[in-house]
Design brief:
This protein is α+β, with helices and mostly antiparallel strands. It has two domains: 195 residues, no CATH class; 67 residues, no CATH class. It is built from five helices and 15 strands. The strands form four sheets. It has a five-stranded mixed β-sheet, with no helix packed on it. Strands 1-4-9-7 form a four-stranded mixed β-sheet.
Length: 275
């Protein structure tokens, strides 16, 4: 029998435990040898990567107010990292910057996954921006230092045409998104919003001769211990800008996530032992 954590037995301790973990996490980063990006600047001239994502998911199965609150939370936290410069040798840390979000307003209740259940929490939904940033970072020469995928997918992806397996969950004190600039160039984050979409770009002080994209290779679904898992190959494609010819296709990783919603009937589910 799995032993329950103290916070599961006494839920009122969760805020204290969260504060404690975040406090020591921030202290640890201030004492390590990394140089964290904190400076903003004028927009750099060259676009290295760009993407946009719809902020409202109509398929969440929850009250739409939580999706609207998520938009508020995204706009608030974006102010902690918009126009941020990531100079050579510097490290971008989502949680390090997000600590300052309170300066720009108050979080509203958005949806988060807690012990396998979707529940409303202050600041819920900000993983939407870490997802976007992680995807953009994959399209650059920047080095992924820390990234964590979600354990459970609770509802279908809002856009079936977008690649899957490129999410990045964050939980201050536990899970971070960290990127290090091991190049000689300076990069910059730019985030903007229209009525329905969040737009993200990675800018640079130097134009590149290549362009990158992310695609899925094989995507399969398996069943193990009465749970369904999605396993997706994540592949980076590098092309020559002038000729549009493929320079390389590199498999980055296999992403495995539990599916907590009913899959369409045409999806083939195989047993784990068959993989």
């Amino acid at each position: 029998m799995k032993r329950k954590r103290l916070t599961e037995l006494m839920p009122f301790l969760i805020p204290i435990r969260s504060w404690q973990k975040n406090f020591f996490y921030q202290i640890k980063m201030r004492l390590d040898k990394a140089t964290y990006s904190t400076k903003v600047g004028e927009l750099l001239p060259f676009v290295v990567a760009s993407s946009s994502t719809c902020m409202i998911n109509q398929n969440s199965g929850q009250d739409i107010i939580y999706q609207e609150n998520k938009v508020n939370n995204l706009k608030l936290i974006s102010k902690t990292m918009n126009r941020l410069l990531i100079k050579p040798g510097e490290t971008f840390s989502f949680c390090y910057l997000a600590e300052n979000a309170h300066k720009y307003g108050k979080y509203k209740d958005g949806l988060v996954l807690v012990n396998g259940a979707i529940v409303p929490r202050k600041g819920g939904g900000i993983c939407h921006i870490s997802n976007l940033l992680y995807y953009l970072f994959l399209l650059t020469p920047l080095t992924i230092v820390e990234r964590h995928g979600h354990d459970i997918k609770s509802f279908p992806d809002p856009d079936p045409n977008e690649p899957i397996g490129i999410d990045a969950t964050i939980n201050s004190g536990w899970l971070d998104l960290k990127i290090r600039n091991d190049t000689k160039e300076t990069y910059q984050i730019f985030i903007d919003f229209d009525e329905t979409h969040m737009i993200g770009k990675i800018l640079s002080n130097k134009e590149t001769n290549t362009s990158a994209s992310i695609k899925n290779g094989q995507v399969k679904y398996c069943k193990k211990n009465n749970k369904i898992y999605e396993i997706a190959e994540v592949i980076k494609v590098l092309k020559d800008k002038k000729t549009n010819e493929i320079i390389s296709e590199t498999k980055l990783y296999d992403e495995k996530i539990e599916i907590a919603y009913t899959l369409p009937k045409n999806i083939i589910i195989i047993e784990e032992k068959e993989i």
